[in-house]
Amino acid sequence: MRLLRLLIAIACLAAGAIVGALNRAPVVIDLGFTRMASNLGVSLLCALLLGVLVGGLAISASVVLPLRRRLARAERREPVVAPISGP
To answer: Which residues, in sequence order, are CB contacts of 20 under 8 Å at separation 6+?
Structure first.
């Protein structure tokens, strides 16, 4: 499993380097209150990273947190013990 994770990490780094190398055109991003100048490859990679982070936070807020609350509620309840019937 470690080898697979390492290979995936290397593939992602290589893909990022290729995207950065092939998209070297300068771009200016105007955010209204400031302007940022960078090359297109860096801007694409930052936008992709920001999208992954926002998506992860959205999934965490909508799925993981409610499930954690449900689990905590279930753990606080008293366990139901079935009566033992004798012979």
So the answer is: 39, 41, 42, 45
